[in-house]
């Protein structure tokens, strides 16, 4: 084979091949990783603005790969969704998150709501998803009021009738429902009309610019006003600097989440926040 490295096209191809190869490797390793439970969860605090105290946590999964190190969910969740492996993985995540939440409750630490990301593939199993949720909560003996499911707007847009049915069932169990990445999908308003949700998570793309871009700030302000009018709670995601915090506070967002307070941390570190009664 000739050396094509001086040729931009060949280099581009090589990078593509590397990416494709990594993808194939991850895809073949994923099934085994699920069987071996080679994953761990991190927890990011959700802080109530009016009190400065932690009121919840979002659970974020990571893959602890033997040779490649920690792999981010942005890379393997799409693979898990395509292959259907998100179903067993999602159950594992739900069980682990509920077990941890229950453990903290039994330790006498402040009770917190746990927010769990749910993929559209999980919801599309219809009755089977709701059954597995019920089974896990029974098993762990965790009350449904401590659970929040984060569902992206794009997920809601798929097969709408079916989604309305599943979400109503979930809600009737007493589980909180949040729309994740709110504002990034099309016809956001439409979804607010058809689905009964509890919380809007304002996407980090608006929060990240709200102190520098008047348009972004106007959008954030409008989402908060809209949520108030509809009796929904708001959580601002991706708060990184004090200027954003101050604006969100004066606009009366309910809660915030972001690196400004804490990145997602291990259960051990999160437990320390609770033990110290951390106030932000
Ligand atoms: P997401 O649900 O929108 O999660 C928020 C992402 O923003 C997380 O990335 C989090 O680490 C990151 N983040 C938090 N604070 C900040 C901040 O201040 N600035 C910036 N720039 N980023 C911040 P992560 O953990 O890499 O997760 C990426 C995505 O993977 C999630 O986006 C979610 O869609 C998906 N994901 C993660 N865990 C799960 C899971 O257990 N199940 C499913 N189905 N999807 C998951
Ligand atoms: Ca989320
Ligand atoms: Ca989000
Ligand atoms: Ca996102």
TrEMBL record:
Domain of life per record: Bacteria
Residue ranges annotated for the EAL domain, each copy included: 23-278
Protein name: EAL domain-containing protein
Organism listed in the record: Halalkalibacter suaedae
Residues of the full protein shown: 653 to 932 of 940
Coiled coil: none
């Amino acid at each position: 084979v000739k050396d094509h490295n001086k040729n931009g096209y060949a280099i581009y191809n090589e990078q593509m091949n590397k990416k494709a190869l990594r993808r194939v490797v991850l895809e073949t390793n994923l099934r085994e990783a699920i069987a071996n439970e080679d994953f761990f969860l991190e927890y990011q605090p959700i802080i109530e603005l009016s009190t400065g105290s932690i009121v919840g946590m979002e659970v974020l999964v990571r893959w602890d790969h033997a040779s490649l190190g920690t792999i981010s969910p942005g890379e393997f969740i799409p693979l898990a969704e395509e292959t259907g492996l998100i179903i067993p993985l999602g159950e594992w995540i739900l069980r682990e998150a509920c077990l941890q939440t229950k453990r903290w409750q039994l330790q006498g630490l402040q009770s917190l709501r746990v927010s769990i990301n749910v993929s559209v593939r999980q919801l599309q199993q219809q009755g089977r998803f709701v059954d597995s949720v019920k089974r896990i909560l029974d098993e762990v003996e965790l009350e449904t009021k401590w659970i929040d499911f984060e569902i992206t707007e794009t997920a809601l847009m798929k097969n709408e009738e079916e989604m309305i049915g599943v979400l109503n069932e979930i809600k009737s169990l007493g589980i909180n429902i949040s729309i994740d990445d709110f504002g990034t999908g099309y016809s956001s308003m439409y979804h607010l009309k058809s689905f009964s949700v509890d919380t809007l998570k304002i996407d980090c793309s608006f929060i990240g610019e709200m102190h520098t871009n008047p348009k972004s700030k106007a959008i954030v302000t409008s989402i908060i006003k809209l949520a108030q009018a509809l009796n929904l709670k708001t959580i601002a995601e991706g708060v990184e600097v004090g200027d954003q915090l101050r604006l969100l506070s004066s606009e009366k967002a309910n809660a915030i989440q972001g690196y400004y307070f804490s990145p997602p941390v291990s259960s051990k570190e999160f437990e320390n926040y609770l033990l110290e009664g951390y106030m932000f």
